[in-house]
Specification:
The chain folds into four domains: 103 residues, Sandwich (Immunoglobulin-like), CATH 2.60.40; 62 residues, Roll (SH3 type barrels), CATH 2.30.30; 101 residues, Sandwich (Immunoglobulin-like); 193 residues, Zn-dependent exopeptidases (Aminopeptidase, 3-Layer(aba) Sandwich). It starts with a helix and ends with a helix. The protein is of the alpha+beta class. The chain is 23% helix and 35% strand. Strands 2, 4, 5, 8, 9, 10, 11, 12, 13 and 14 form a ten-stranded mixed beta sheet that branches. The longest helix has 23 residues.
Length: 483
């Protein structure tokens, strides 16, 4: 039996493709975490094999279960004592491959945030996004998965591969933050400013539940109950409540009124303060309203959907956006467009994420109160795309749902579409904006009948933009009536 195993091992070493056919999907290595914590391992490899994982110094093996063709997973616990090497073993081929190391540690240092970083539910881009970290925040870590870092308090993850930790940061101990006082001020444009005086700017997650907007300040102790709110300042806001939490340790700042118009989290680099900016109520009409109109896609590298008859989505989006901007200006709105020509906002060499972020930054810098992104739809399946039709308005933040709901029917009616919906979806440009924001998929450009009979017609941009204007008017009137 031993000669057979030796032969199989020699064959595996002679044909490196056996090792290369296995790919570790999650986690990145090395793994550093709390002793005994469970870690999910996902691998991709040949179908119908019986691989397992094995830690050095242990006799126990951990069978990888094939959850779908060629996709395997299992869970291991972080060892309690020393650093251990982890091996992938495929008995059928004699493969034995070192994947990396697992090590127990409850302290992994600190992270000083110098550029905006996305937080996720897990250490992989597949996991959903949460409230970002902003420059100036200072957070403690308690887990590492390769270049991914786990935030100690919220247990969320950030991709730190572009900003690896120094040895000093990895060794540093960060004590809990202390919230001393909240000052309520009013910005020149009428927005409310909540100035949080603290020893440092900690991790914060914004959560909207029902009629309440909560800002969770993690790893924070409340040492003073002082909220300074002068009479007549930011009167649209309801009471500001502070709720200390034991697990996870932190403080919740809760507001129950005046939270439908967007917010912004602004850490102060010099003082360690954190400013929560709550946007003021919208006017009852379009007069004076600041709106960003975003024509989706654009440039040589991003054409968007291309119809069967050759109509490009980037071109159609710009036509509708231009018509919409003109109508809104005629009604007194202050409109800014993210692009005015067939060019991307950033140079073509910029990444997709940077391009989308630049559109959001454009809106924020101009103080826009609404963000409207113009798109036309398609389906992954070509055959499905040929027959699909419908108007779909997407929202992400709870304060954007009402805007999407008020737009769906008027747009669909204006372009003669029976099917219409407003849907939650995690699109970048409506997730990161600081005002009510929607992504409007007016119709399916992938449907050649609609491309010819509706979308290519000279009066289509006029009809589509008229539907948006009607929906905006209905939305603003509804918001005013609820105050």
């Amino acid at each position: 039996m031993k000669p057979l195993k030796t032969l199989l091992l020699l064959l595996a070493l002679s044909f490196p493709t056996l090792a290369e056919s296995w790919e570790l999907l999650e986690p990145e290595m090395p793994v550093v975490g709390r002793s005994g914590e469970s870690v999910l391992f996902r691998l991709k490899g040949p179908q119908a094999h019986q691989p397992f994982l094995k830690l050095s110094g242990e006799t126990v093996t951990h069978r990888l279960v094939e959850v779908s063709p060629g996709n395997y997973q299992t869970a291991l616990s972080v060892p309690q004592d020393t650093k251990r090497s982890l091996f992938l073993v495929d008995a059928g081929t004699g493969l034995r491959r070192r994947l990396g190391t697992l090590q127990a540690s409850s302290h992994c240092g600190q992270l000083r945030v110098t550029s905006e970083m996305v937080t996720r539910q897990g250490p992989h881009p597949d996991y959903d996004r949460l409230t970002p970290l902003y420059p100036g925040q200072h957070v403690a870590l308690d887990g590492i998965r390769g270049g991914w870092y786990r935030l100690r308090a919220s247990q969320t993850w950030v991709d730190g591969r572009k900003s690896p930790l120094s040895e000093t940061d990895m060794a540093a101990f960060l004590p809990p933050n202390r919230l001393k006082r909240i000052r309520v001020e009013q910005a020149p444009n009428g927005d409310a400013l909540l100035k949080l005086e603290m020893t440092r700017s900690p991790e914060i997650q914004a959560i909207q539940t029902g009629q309440a907007l909560q800002f969770h300040l993690y790893d924070t102790l409340q040492t003073n109950f002082d909220i300074r709110r002068p009479s007549g300042v930011a009167t649209f806001l309801g009471p500001i409540l502070l709720r200390p939490c034991a697990q996870p340790q932190g403080v919740i700042v809760e507001i129950n009124e005046g939270i439908k118009y967007g917010y912004q989290i602004i850490p102060e680099l010099e003082t360690g303060e954190l400013t929560l900016r709550l946007r003021k109520p919208l006017p009852a009409s379009l007069e004076g309203l600041k709106i960003t109109v975003d024509a989706g896609h654009g440039g040589l590298e991003d054409r968007g959907t291309v119809g069967h008859l050759g109509l490009e989505e980037k071109v159609l989006n710009l036509r509708v956006a231009e018509a919409l901007a003109e109508k809104l200006r005629q009604l007194g709105a202050e409109v800014t467009m993210t692009r005015l020509t067939d060019k991307a906002v950033l140079p073509e060499s910029a990444g997709a994420g940077d391009e989308l972020q630049s559109r959001i930054d454009h809106s924020i810098k101009r103080g826009s109160q609404l963000f409207l992104s113009v798109h036309h739809n398609a389906r992954p399946s070509v055959e499905q795309g040929k027959i699909y039709h419908g108007t779909d308005i997407y929202w992400y933040q709870p304060h954007s749902q009402s805007l999407a709901r008020h737009l769906a029917d008027p747009i669909a009616d204006a372009i003669g579409e029976e099917s219409r919906s407003f849907r939650w979806r995690s699109f970048y440009v409506i997730r990161q904006t600081h005002s009510p924001a929607v992504l409007m998929e007016f119709q399916y450009l992938s449907n050649p009948v609609l491309e010819k009979s509706v979308l290519s017609q000279p009066d289509y941009p006029e009809k589509a933009s008229s539907g948006v204007v009607e929906g905006l008017r209905n939305y603003l009137e509804a918001q005013a009536s609820e105050r």
